[in-house]
Amino acid sequence: MNTPNTRAIAVVVAYNRRELLAEVLDALDAQTVRPHVIVVDNASSDGSGDLARDRAGVELIELARNTGGAGGFAAGLAIALDRHEPEWVWLMDDDTVPTPTALEELLRAADAGDVAAAGSRVVWTDGSEHPMNTPRENPFASREERLRAARLGGIAVRSTSFVSMLVRAEAAREAGLPIADYFIWNDDFEYSTRVIRGRFGLHVPASVVVHKTKALASTDADPGGRFYYEVRNKLWMFRRSASLGPLEKLVYGASSIRRWIRTFARSADRAVLRDGLRRGWHDGTRFRPRPNADALAGLGEASDAVARVEAAAARQAAAGRSAAANPGAAT
C-alpha cells in the first residue's frame, strides 16, 4: 500500500459540496505519491465535515463560520506549517479532482527546478482545457527562466490558482498566508504572485486535474453579484499588496480593465454588474483588508496557528530587512 506522509500535505477547502469532496478524497487516496490530507470545512451544512471526519487518515479542521476560500486556505496552510514539517503544501478546492499522477508530476518538476510554486494543467469534465484556469506565461521571465521551465517540461509563470497549487513550505513561511479578507476571487492571484515574486513559478502540463465546475466558463463570464469581489479585491491587490512590482501592476491592471469591459459587453444584467462595480470600487479604495489575526479570530486552533505562522513570517522579514540595511553586521 502507498502510505501517505507529511513531505507533501494536501489542503482541501470544503464548503457544501459533499459529493464532490468525496471524489476529491478518493482521488487523493489514489495518488501514486499519496499526501497527508487536511480538510478545512468552512462551516458546511451538508455533512461535508462528517464525511471528512469518517475518512481514515484525514485531518479535519472545522471552522465555526464560512471564511471563504481565502480564509480556508489561510487556515489550512497555517495548520500544515504549524503542526507538521512539510516540504510542500498542495492547495485545492473541493471541486478539484486530481488524476492519479498529478502530485507525482508536480513534485518531479518542482524538486528538479528550485520551484517556489507550481500549478497543474486543468481540464473540465469533458477533457478540454478549462478556460478559467488557463496558464499564462510570465511576460517578465528571463531567458534563463524560460529555458529552465522548458527543460522541466513546463512554462515559467507569474501566477497560478488554488485549483491545484503546489507551494514550497519554505517560500510559504517567508511570504506568509493568503489574505483571508479577500474571501473569494483573486485570493490565489495575489498569493501566488506574492510567493513567486523574486522566485520561480512553473506550470506543469504533465500534472492534470479535473475542475468540476457546473459550466465551462472563462474568467470574463458574467459573475452576477460576485463582480463586487472581483473589483474590490483587484483594487486591494493593485493598491495594497506587495505581490507585484510597479510595471507588473500596470500590465495586469490594464488586462483586468479589458476583461471587465468584455464582461459588461456579454452580460444580460448590466445593472447588477454596475452595482458590483460601484460597491467594489468604494470598498476597494476606502478600506483595506484586515490582518488575518483579526479576520480569522475566534476560530480556536486555526486562529492560533495563523497567529504563530504569521508572527514567524514577520520576524523573518524583519531579519531580512535588518541584514540588508547592515550587510557587514554578520561578518
From TrEMBL:
GO terms for molecular function: glycosyltransferase activity. The keyword Lipid metabolism does not apply. Pathway: Cell wall biogenesis; cell wall polysaccharide biosynthesis. Residues 11-164 form the Glycosyltransferase 2-like domain. InterPro entries: Glyco_trans_2-like, Nucleotide-diphossugar_trans. SUPFAM superfamilies: Nucleotide-diphospho-sugar transferases (SSF53448). Pfam families: Glycos_transf_2. Keywords: Glycosyltransferase, Transferase. The keyword Ligase does not apply. Belongs to the glycosyltransferase 2 family. This is Glycosyltransferase. It comes from Agromyces archimandritae.
